[in-house]
Design a protein that fits this description.
- The protein is mainly alpha-helical.
- The chain has two helices and no strands.
- It is elongated.
- The termini are far apart.
Length: 56
């Protein structure tokens, strides 16, 4: 049971990291494209998009 729980937690963390990575890639590709930026904000409403810094 503990192994299953640990595996589920690892999968969840990987899923979250993957989601953040994909959001960052989407934002980078949408750089300067306001229409895509609005779409990104709709797709990921819980993510804070900061266009003033180049954070990696």
């Amino acid at each position: 049971m503990d192994d299953e729980l640990a595996a589920a937690e690892r999968a969840q963390r990987l899923n979250e990291r993957t989601k953040v990575f994909l959001m960052k890639k989407f934002v980078e590709s949408a750089d300067q494209d306001e229409r895509k930026m609005r779409r990104a904000e709709e797709m990921f409403p819980d993510f804070v998009f900061d266009q003033t810094t180049d954070a990696h």
